[in-house]
UniProtKB/TrEMBL annotation:
Cofactors that this protein relies on: Ca(2+)
Entry keyword Calcium: yes
Catalytic activity: alpha-D-glucose = beta-D-glucose
Origin: domain of life: Bacteria
Record-given protein name: Aldose 1-epimerase
Amino acid sequence: MMQLTKAIWGHHEGQNVYLFKLSNGQMEVSLTNFGATIAGIITPDKNGQKQNIVLGYDDLAGYIADEFYIGCTVGRFAGRIAGAALNINGVQYPLAPNDGDKNIHLHGGNKGFNKRVFTVTNEAITDDTASVELYYRSPHLEEGYPGNLDIWIMYQLSADNKLSIRYKAVSDADTHINLTNHSYFNLSGKQQNALNHRLFINADSYLVSDENYIPTGEVKSVVGTSFDFKTDRVVDNGSRNECYVLTKNTVGLAAILSHEASGREMRVETDMPALVFYSADYLDGQFLKNGGLCLETQYYPDSPNHATFPSTLLKAGEIWEQWTELGFGW
């Protein structure tokens, strides 16, 4: 039986922050409108023991102070933009150079969507689904981006253990957009290294990047390289931060993550063109290095600077819609 609960979790900048719990009787997903964030995904293992399989904080204060984009929606632009600027229709728009001293714009700026309180626009429950829709208006020149951008994000849990994320956006001026969810998955359900997980990525090629994770523009085959996950294998390497060009030879399949000891598996499907695999080697504090794996469905990093990449330009008045679905088994 589908269930949806809602409780006040705190307040931020004069706005109510809620914690939602979506349940289908087998698994439970916790969401908050702070950063449109996935705060927990509880599933059973092969023996029926239920555990949380994403990294998260126990309270709102943790997410407010968070520096690792734990579980949040990243925007307006996921990934890096070299030169910390956009050139749109001949106009230069400076962006926050917030990736150290490298003159690189990262994950939407100093205060991206991960630190914004979204408005709750819909809560719905049917015999087969439970869903929450969140909305945010990003004003013109917020973090440097042109246009008043309206975005809607719907999270929906189904009776067959699928969590879908549907994005919709519209702007009143030409702008760039690239949204993703930044959850860290550890299917063991424990605080331990996640490099023993097995991973399949449905990609024949990846983007070659420089030492600052900026794409050079070269798209290279994974064959014969350490980047090849076309056959599922143990992750092992703890320094992964690559953008994979997804192969559209199956209906939206992007990746499959599995953990042998627990029996858990997660299937990622999307209509976005790329997947960034990040093995969390920069995690510290209360989180273990490599304590979770990110599988970020999105467009290519630094796309505004590469005419050959799939365009992230959203023209005024046009509707931008994308989706990602996570399917869980055990």
